[in-house]
Amino acid sequence: MALTAGDVAPDFTLPDSNGNPVTLSDLRGKWVVLYFYPKDDTPGCTKEACGFRDAFADYEAKGIVILGVNTNDAKSHTKFVTKYNLPFTLLTDADAQVSTQYDSYGLKKFMGKEYMGISRHTFLIDPEGKIAKVYLKVKPEEHAAQILADLATLTA
Question: Which of 45, 63, 99, 134 has an alpha carbon within 20 to 30 A of 24's alpha carbon?
Fold first, then answer.
């Protein structure tokens, strides 16, 4: 069953790139951008992450937390964060359990091959812990700006 706007965001605890646990419910009272992306340091994922980085001051000024999630390990996340100076938290979902809860893990096809992987989906979660908006067709270059524009409408 796909998550939609108005649903309570499934709670989780995942480790950040330093091994510290991050629990979604601990962020109640804040807007959260929870974005799932396939792999660290690949072209589309780098564009998306750098978009959030470049708009980070705007997100921070509004008190919005950005969390990136995929199955890469802490070492990969740390390298990605360092290489692109990413100022937000990346979480490791090693067994894809959280990604599956958020309908963001499943069968993918690329160049005629099928494999299990993470889809580029984003969930905007409101301060009460409910999903305000779901993004299933993400354009990495425009995504950070699109969310800020949507937030301006949602909070107006």
Answer: 45
Quick check: 25 and 11 in contact, CB under 8 A?
A: yes
> What's the pTM value of the predicted model, to 2 decimals?
0.94
Candidate list 32, 45, 90, 91, residue with the active-site label: 45
What does the pLDDT look like over 40-88, one tens digit per residue? 999 899 999 999 999 999 999 999 999 999 999 999 999 999 999 999 9
CATH of domain 31-154: 3.40.30.10
Cβ atoms within 10 Å of 136's Cβ, excluding its own: 12
What are the sequence ranges of the domains in the chain?
31-154
What is the rounded distance in angstroms from the CA atom of residue 74 to the CA atom of residue 94? 10
